[in-house]
């Protein structure tokens, strides 16, 4: 099978970029011919660059012609779009339609439902724009990058293509990462029958040593930013008087503020900041941790961190919210706590510490869940089912036209 992947990379590489590369390598490992067409937001420089990007957001004729050329030379069986925002734009769908090539769109975030792509405002879940034809609230609050002008450009794109029927008629299949994610996108107006649920996957970890796990510390891995809920975690340690060591891996805009919060509250002996670490080091830390804490305060898409934890036989204590509550099964692969509630989080951490046999069982369940759902093999099977269904539908439609 020949697959053309289209992706708009971000300035700072994130989870989406990792998933795109992983899927490309997965497909190639099974013998498929894959061509990846990427553009980079690095080209958005200065006022002129931002103006050009704003105009491209709604519809980029340049991108349409570029992917037409790629299709003409490569002749793919299917086009898989990961991220079209902001430079590619939904114009890529038209190029595929003109060439009678079926197109699949992975929904890595909530962009088609929310101008910010993250239904979170002022530290709280916000669904004001979900299901609205014109997402005025996102513009009024400047949700995209704190700018009403830039938010208006995104809102215009969403509104234009809703009225045009782009989301309904020019995409053959969508991939949502969880059932929760799918339901939110249906609420936003996408056709339910076109949305398939396929999670992300991670490679099985390889450890330096397979010695007995230490299990003498708790672990957080993630970006140190508001939506990740690290402040709630620190509050849980302070209010719950927790003594199990906590290792925090990652960096971000709240790095210094969180370090200061730990020192001010006298938690410097218990909580350690390790900064950004290599993937190999993170997996070693996961292998030796007692449990992972995932206190995010927003819906999340599909956190690779949780899949990696399961691959390392590591239970997860996660906020009972959105996709997290779906991925982590309470009492089976981890524990749920009430989002933004430090006392409830502290109680769940204490429970995990005082019930080692239950945690041992959760370790086994976590690994079994990984092997059943999040391996490359399982993911490839799901992806092929989606591709084949879309191509068969396209062929049937073409035969009916003839």
From TrEMBL:
Q: Which InterPro entries match?
A: Glyco_trans_1, Glyco_trans_4-like_N, Glycosyltransferase_grp1
| Positions of the Glycosyltransferase subfamily 4-like N-terminal domain | 61-202
Checking SUPFAM superfamilies in the record gives: UDP-Glycosyltransferase/glycogen phosphorylase
Which branch of life, at top level?
Bacteria
Task: Indicate the segments forming the Glycosyl transferase family domain, all copies.
Answer: 207-367
Protein name per its UniProtKB record:
Glycosyltransferase family 1 protein
Name the Pfam families for this protein.
Glyco_transf_4 (PF13439), Glycos_transf_1 (PF00534)
């Amino acid at each position: 099978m020949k697959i053309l992947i289209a992706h708009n990379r971000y300035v700072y590489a994130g989870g989406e970029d990792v998933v795109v590369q992983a899927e490309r390598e997965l497909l190639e490992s099974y013998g498929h011919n894959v061509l990846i067409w990427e553009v980079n937001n690095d080209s958005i420089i200065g006022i002129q660059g931002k103006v050009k990007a704003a105009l491209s957001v709604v519809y980029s004729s340049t991108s349409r012609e570029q992917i037409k050329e790629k299709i003409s030379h490569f002749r793919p069986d299917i086009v898989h779009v990961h991220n079209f925002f902001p430079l590619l734009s939904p114009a890529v769908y038209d190029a595929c339609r003109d060439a009678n090539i079926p197109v699949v769109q992975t929904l890595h975030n909530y962009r088609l439902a929310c101008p910010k792509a993250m239904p979170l405002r002022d530290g709280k879940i916000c669904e004001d724009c979900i299901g609205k034809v014109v997402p005025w609230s996102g513009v009024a609050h400047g949700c995209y990058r704190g700018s009403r002008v830039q938010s208006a450009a995104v809102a215009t794109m969403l509104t234009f293509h809703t009225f045009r029927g782009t989301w309904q008629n020019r995409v053959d299949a969508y991939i949502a990462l969880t059932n929760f994610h799918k339901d939110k996108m249906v609420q936003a107006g996408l056709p339910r029958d076109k949305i398939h649920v396929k999670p992300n996957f991670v490679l099985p970890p390889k450890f330096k040593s397979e010695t007995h796990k230490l299990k003498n510390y708790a672990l957080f891995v993630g970006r140190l930013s508001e939506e990740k809920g690290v402040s709630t975690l620190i509050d849980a340690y302070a209010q719950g008087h927790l003594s199990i060591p906590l290792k925090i891996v990652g960096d971000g805009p709240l790095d210094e503020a969180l370090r200061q919060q730990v020192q001010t509250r006298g938690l410097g002996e218990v909580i350690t900041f390790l900064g950004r670490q290599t993937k190999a080091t993170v997996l070693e830390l996961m292998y030796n941790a007692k449990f992972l804490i995932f206190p995010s305060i927003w819906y999340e898409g599909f956190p690779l961190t949780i899949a990696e934890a399961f691959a390392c036989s590591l239970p997860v204590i996660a906020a009972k919210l959105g996709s997290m509550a779906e991925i982590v099964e309470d009492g089976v692969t981890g524990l749920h706590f009430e989002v933004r509630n430090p006392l409830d989080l502290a109680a769940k951490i204490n429970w995990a510490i005082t019930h080692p046999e239950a945690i041992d069982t959760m370790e086994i369940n976590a690994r079994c869940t990984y092997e059943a759902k999040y391996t490359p093999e399982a993911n490839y099977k799901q992806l092929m089912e989606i591709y084949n269904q879309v191509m068969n539908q396209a062929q049937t439609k073409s035969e009916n036209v003839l």
